[in-house]
């Protein structure tokens, strides 16, 4: 049976990985500066991660959410302690799209309204409401287009105010650092005023931290650079270091009712073991501090390369913008220099999303290859 052909594939077949490196079937070593879309947060095959998953699956890998699962409580408490999101409640699911889908559904339940405001170049997932709030018509099917979504420009505060005052908006959803869209950010004033406008208009403010969360920005969450209080925070990617897990953090002003949200696989024992291992490593190895150090080092070198026209993003969620499309540069880095990097909807942007425990030697290796590839 052939695979449904929806992915354009590079001719690389990874068979193993360790730390910041991936190895193919010929044992060729690749430096991984993309982490499978910002998923690999603590490095491939981290020993504490492997041990936690191995021990858990040997005991109990899965049972339903109809029974007690102390690992969920342990994960929630650890997440509260490290993130600083005191008194929020946690709902666990399996992916970023599912996290945003549940965030939007919960906002509609809470406000009894149905329209969503999202932003140009935003990406929130491929499920029904999440994809409708994504600024990419090519992936929105007619069944998704039935959702009531208004896409506005980042930083257009007057447009947000006008739409919210119509009284039918249940949620404003925003990435504080856009991922797929190209690492654009709004101003502090915009984020902070939108937060206030939401609270004045019975609208929930949703922080999509699926890609920017878990320390990648240099803070646990990217919204923490601003004076805002999201009603819901969506998380996934780096949360499980490759194991499928997602969730939403829910402000205590929103009250739970039996049955309003649900999932079969979300928060299973194996997922929680993976999630706890990630948080423990982030804490014990001071990875958020490392993000700040390595980001500063990366930017300092990037600023010396004349072909780089702009450096975007924060922490280890970095974009290098050129005055040409980077698809051929990415291929050259993969095939000639054995380095994985990422692209974006901005075709001139090279995205860098490495493991959070990457070191200066890895950064040097990348820039040596980049300079050589640009000269070629």
TrEMBL record:
Its cofactor is pyridoxal 5'-phosphate. It comes from the Bacteria. One of its GO terms (molecular function) is pyridoxal phosphate binding. Keywords: Aminotransferase, Pyridoxal phosphate, Transferase. SUPFAM superfamilies: PLP-dependent transferases. PROSITE patterns: AA_TRANSFER_CLASS_3 (PS00600). This is Acetylornithine aminotransferase. It comes from Polaribacter vadi. The lineage of its organism: Bacteria, Pseudomonadati, Bacteroidota, Flavobacteriia, Flavobacteriales.
């Amino acid at each position: 049976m052939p695979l449904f052909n929806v992915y354009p594939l590079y001719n690389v077949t990874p068979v193993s990985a360790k730390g910041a490196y991936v190895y193919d079937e010929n044992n060729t070593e690749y430096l991984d500066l993309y982490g499978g879309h910002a998923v690999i947060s603590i490095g491939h095959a981290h020993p504490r991660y492997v041990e936690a998953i191995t021990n858990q699956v040997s005991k109990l890998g899965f049972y339903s959410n109809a029974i007690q699962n102390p690992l969920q409580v342990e994960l929630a408490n650890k997440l509260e302690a490290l993130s600083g999101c005191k008194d929020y409640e946690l709902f666990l699911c399996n992916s970023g799209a599912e996290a945003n889908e549940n965030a939007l559904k919960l906002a509609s339940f809470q406000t009894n309204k149905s329209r969503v405001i999202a932003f140009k170049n935003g990406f929130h997932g491929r499920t029904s409401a999440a994809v409708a709030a994504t600024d990419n018509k090519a992936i929105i099917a007619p069944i998704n287009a039935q959702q009531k979504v208004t896409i506005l420009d980042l930083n257009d505060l007057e447009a947000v105010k006008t739409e919210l005052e119509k009284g039918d908006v249940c949620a404003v959803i925003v990435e504080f650092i856009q991922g797929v869209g190209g690492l654009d950010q709004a101003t502090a004033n915009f984020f902070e005023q939108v937060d206030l406008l939401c609270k004045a208009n019975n609208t929930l403010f949703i922080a999509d931290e699926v890609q920017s969360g878990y320390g990648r920005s240099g803070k646990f969450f990217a919204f923490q650079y601003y004076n805002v209080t999201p009603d819901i925070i969506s998380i996934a990617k780096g949360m499980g270091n490759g194991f499928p897990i997602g969730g939403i953090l829910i402000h205590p002003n929103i009250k739970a009712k039996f049955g309003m949200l649900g999932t079969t696989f979300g928060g299973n024992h194996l997922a929680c073991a993976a999630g706890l291992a990630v948080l423990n490593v982030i804490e014990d190895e001071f990875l958020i501090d490392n993000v700040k150090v390595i980001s500063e080092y990366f930017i300092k070198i990037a600023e010396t390369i004349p072909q780089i026209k702009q450096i975007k993003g924060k922490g280890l969620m970095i974009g290098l913008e050129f005055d040409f499309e980077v698809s051929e540069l990415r291929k050259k880095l993969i095939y000639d220099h054995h380095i994985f990097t990422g692209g974006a909807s901005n075709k001139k942007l090279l995205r860098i999303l490495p493991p959070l425990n990457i070191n200066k030697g890895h950064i040097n290796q990348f820039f040596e290859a980049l300079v050589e590839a640009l000269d070629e």
